[in-house]
Every structure is written in structure tokens, then in C-alpha cells.
Amino acid sequence: MNVALGPRQGGCCVVCDAPCYRVKSFDPKTRRPRQMGEPIEGAKLALFLQVNGARAELTLCAACAEAASQWTQHINLIWKRVILAFQFMRDNPPVTHSADSKARWHESHNRAICDLVANPPIALIGMKDLQTGGIVL
Fold first, then answer.
1. Are 56 and 70 in contact, with CB atoms under 8 Å apart?
2. Distance between CA 12 and CA 50 in Å, rounded?
3. pTM across the whole model
4. Residue-level pLDDT, tens digit, the chain, 137 residues
């Protein structure tokens, strides 16, 4: 199983970038998904325990959810993609933000990035079906 490189795409699988939601709209500046619609059949949320005891939820397509044993050994690389996505969002605020709200946007994303770096996931604790919300693992 190959793990995609670079920042993860919103609404897509954190492992391979396959779509997990139908996209309602795209950001005009970055052409990345902005608003998500219904989840695609088979998409899951992988539930991870983080170092600080918090729970992280990472979106997976059906194929990657089925092959969890093959990619969990690469969780550090996958977590790096999550951090890169936050850095990308921090550096590309929505075009409608004022200078003051852009500064708040930047600061809030910096705090989130610091938290993600300090508290990586340590264990897969379950999976949740995106369509039904039911726990599947």
C-alpha cells in the first residue's frame, strides 16, 4: 500500500487521497474542496488515541479502511500529511477574510499545528462508518 505524499486533501482519504465525500464547492483560490456533501459509501473515520489522551479522527476510503493493518505502520508519515494540511490552510486563508481575521486565522492554525506535533497518535482504537455513524472496529 502506498501512502500519498504532501498535504492531505480535504474530504479525501488521509492515506491515498481518494474522495470520501461528495464535494459541494471548491475554494476559488486553491481549487481544493471547500464544502463537503454526503459521505461516499464505505468511507470510514479511523479513531486514534493521541499521546495527550485526546482522540484524533482521520478519514479513510473503503479500500484503506479494509487494509488498515498495511498502513498503520506508516502512521507517522500519515500524521505528517495532516500537519502539512494545517500548514497549507494556515498559509491560504479564505479570500473573504479581513487582515485582522487573517491574523486570528494564522494564530489559531499555528496553535493547532503545535498541538498536532506535540501529540501524535499512538494507537488505532476503532473505526466509525461515515454514513451510519456506527462503530465498525
1. no
2. 21
3. 0.79
4. 566 667 777 788 998 889 999 988 887 777 777 788 899 999 999 999 999 999 999 999 999 988 887 777 788 888 998 999 889 889 888 777 688 888 898 899 999 999 999 999 998 899 999 988 887 76
Count, residues in the chain? 137
The DSSP code for 42 is: T
User: Which helix (H) or strand (E) segment is 117 a member of?
Assistant: helix 99-118
Query: What is the chain's alpha carbon radius of gyration, rounded to the nearest angstrom?
Result: 15
The span from the CA of 10 to the CA of 35, in Å, is 9
- Determine the residue type at 1: M
In whole angstroms, give the CA distance from residue 31 to residue 24.
12
CA distance 137 to 126: 5
- Cβ count within 10 A of residue 107: 11
The C-alpha cell that represents 12 in the structure block: 479525501
Cα separation, 46 vs 16, whole angstroms:
14
In the block, cell 505524499 appears at 5
